[in-house]
Design brief:
- The protein has 16 helices and 24 strands.
- By secondary structure, the chain is α/β, with parallel strands linked by helices.
- The strands form four sheets. An eight-stranded antiparallel sheet has the order 3-2-4-1-10-9-11-14, covered by helices on one side.
- The termini are close together.
- It binds 6-O-phosphono-alpha-D-glucopyranose.
Length: about 600
């Protein structure tokens, strides 16, 4: 799973390749590399492990390159070490690959019999050797790439250079996104639109089983029969945004604080005095949503946690039945679609492979409609879904998702209100609750000093338990995920009532138990569950607006502001984000780029 960028040009492209690669770092940062050729068509390749900035010192050897392909890697097959870093070479052929070649072991042994030797442990290296082998036979790159992809099983986006084709990049894709950018006297390949935006807004998404030949002056797209395909050039509406830390130490911290203006802005954009504005999910959507009896939510990670809250909200206020599935499961399950079922995919990036393939599957089933809730315009998910809601929360840089989560929750709250209209007259009251978010949110940031102090108690822990009930359960899941992701402390989340069915065995005087306890009709039950922890001398950390006595110093109460129950999930996650941030700071981890993770997981 990785990011690909390439430029076919006659001018120097070294810096552009490096800058473009930086924009794709969210796809992985285990290692990175660039292959480029100069006017004499000599190929030079540089590689570095770790974040892309580690390539910087090696860039001098690329001073003269005009055309190049670049790659940032998230390791799937083979450790994150130099030999496994892309581009992979086979004599005069250099390739970069995103995806997984499922039959690489068979292909490797076939190539070994033909005397190809392998320098890496990756699945990708077979591609360079296969293209080389086919090129030796045909002396034609178009044919070589086509016959190579015919025997590949799995998913791929490939960028390739051959020194016999000066200033030329070849590309192919199936199941992994790739776009072709059309510039002035230079053309591009990229995993998404962001690295090309500073040069051009014109692009063509390459579809599955399509191929491209790119030179500085021409882009030709062809199919597996070598037939030229004429495709419409799209024009992006996105701007090349520069993200800066604006005085914060980390993007995660900045993004936690951005939640206030974003939610305020979303409120003014979509919420009227006592009603949600008409058709906020697109033209005619109020009518479409009125006709829904069931909803299937599909998402991954943090976005999946948002869907769990939505399921509870919608089922609470309507008679609509909802399911929420993680995308990696949805794809492989038999799905029963009843009439009037809406499919909703949720994704910050719109590039998560599992979510994309779930949507592709859904488009073939009998859903009445598909809606994507996404933060990135012109992403693969938004291109595929029939209805699209763009959250416009601005680029989220930190791998641990924060502002995307609360924006997703806000969007899903709007969805809940719109579809609950025909079930009773509650819109006015719910809208009043929405307006309270911006009133209350400031007081959450004021908790940071206390949270910072509490974070010391987690620093040396290896395990933690998170509890919640009702809509606080997905918040416990999300809070546990945040802690795991950036502090590397094991965190498991449970429905508080489930504790006694097993996890309680883990509780002793060293075990921190974090609980989200808004003062609602469930609070009494959660308090009983907490009593079970306290009876075993567990350390409790309770986020609550309920007045509960602090019995001893094993109980830590984080005093939350009073808030309507409806908006509690949006507010309770914010101090939990701050808690994991401060624990991570104490543990001195790389907060924005935690080990082994990537912002967007583009392989299945
Ligand atoms: C990765 C990220 C998570 C994110 C998940 C889904 O695993 O590290 O933070 O929640 O992907 O991403 P998406 O872009 O689809 O919301």
């Amino acid at each position: 799973m990785c990011g690909i960028f390439g430029i076919a040009s006659t001018k120097s492209t070294r810096n552009k390749l490096y800058q473009g690669l930086m924009k794709l770092e969210y796809r992985g940062y285990d290692s990175s590399g660039i292959s480029g050729s100069d006017i004499s068509s000599k190929l030079t390749t540089i590689k570095a492990t770790g974040p892309i900035k580690n390539l910087r010192t090696k860039l001098t050897s690329l001073t003269r390159i005009t055309t190049g392909i670049a790659h940032t890697r998230w390791a799937t097959h083979g450790e994150a070490i130099l030999k496994n870093t892309h581009p992979h070479l086979s004599e005069n052929i250099s390739i970069v690959h995103n995806g997984i070649i499922e039959n690489y072991i068979e292909l490797k042994s076939l190539l070994k019999k033909k005397r190809y030797s392998f320098k890496s442990d990756t699945d990708s290296e077979v591609i360079s050797h296969l293209i080389h082998m086919n090129y030796k036979k045909t002396k034609n790159m178009e044919s070589s790439i086509i016959s190579t992809t015919k025997i590949l099983k799995g998913s791929y986006a490939i960028g390739c250079m051959n020194t016999n084709y000066p200033n030329t990049i070849f590309a192919a894709c199936k199941g992994s996104p790739l776009i072709i950018g059309k510039g002035v006297n230079e053309n591009f390949i990229a995993s998404d639109i962001t690295p090309i935006l500073s040069d051009t807004k014109h692009y063509i998404p390459l579809d599955d089983n399509e191929f491209a030949k790119i030179t500085p002056s021409k882009v030709s797209i062809f199919n597996a029969n070598k037939k030229i395909i004429i495709k419409k050039v799209k024009t992006s509406k996105m701007n090349s945004e520069q993200s800066s830390l604006s005085g914060h130490k980390h993007f995660m911290h900045k993004e936690i604080y951005e939640q206030k203006p974003i939610l305020k802005e979303m409120t003014s954009r979509y919420v009227g005095t006592n009603k949600i504005l008409p058709n906020i999910f697109g033209p005619g959507t109020d009518k479409i949503l009125e006709n829904i009896d069931h909803i299937h939510f599909v998402a991954c990670g943090t976005s999946y946690h948002a869907s769990l809250v939505a399921k509870d909200w919608i089922e609470e206020y309507t008679t609509i039945t909802c399911t929420a599935e993680v995308a990696s499961e949805y794809k492989y399950k038999k799905i029963n679609v009843l009439p009037k079922t809406l499919f909703v995919s949720i994704s910050q990036s719109g590039e998560t492979a599992d979510t994309i393939s779930s949507l592709k599957k859904a488009l073939k089933l009998k859903y009445s409609n598909t809606l994507a809730i996404c933060n990135v315009a012109e992403s693969t998910l938004t291109r595929l879904s029939k209805l699209v809601f763009l959250m416009n929360a601005g680029p989220e840089i930190s791998v641990a998702s924060t502002k995307a989560f609360t924006s997703q929750l806000f969007t899903l709250l709007l969805l809940t209100i719109v579809i609950s209209r025909k079930f009773g007259n509650i819109e006015n009251r719910m809208v009043k609750d929405i307006y309270k978010i911006s009133e209350i949110i400031d007081s959450l940031y004021k908790l940071e000093t206390d949270i910072k102090k509490i974070s010391t108690k987690f620093k040396n822990k290896e395990h933690t338990i998170f509890l919640g009930k009702g809509t606080s359960y997905p918040i416990a899941l999300e809070a546990a995920l945040k802690l795991k992701e950036i502090s590397y402390i094991h965190a498991s989340a449970y429905h508080s009532g489930e504790l006694k069915h097993g996890p309680l065995a883990l509780v002793d005087k060293k075990m921190p138990v974090v609980c989200f306890l808004p003062d609602n009709h469930l609070a009494r039950l959660v308090l009983s569950n907490l009593a079970e922890v306290e009876a075993r001398q567990g350390q409790t950390f309770i986020f609550t607006n309920k007045k509960i006595p602090k019995k001893n110093n094993k109980v830590e109460i984080i005093k939350m502001p009073d808030c309507p129950d409806l908006i509690a999930p949006i507010l309770y996650i914010i101090p939990a984000q701050l808690l994991s941030y401060h624990v991570a700071l104490r543990k001195k981890t790389d907060v924005d780029k935690p080990r082994n993770l990537a912002k967007s997981v583009t392989v299945e």
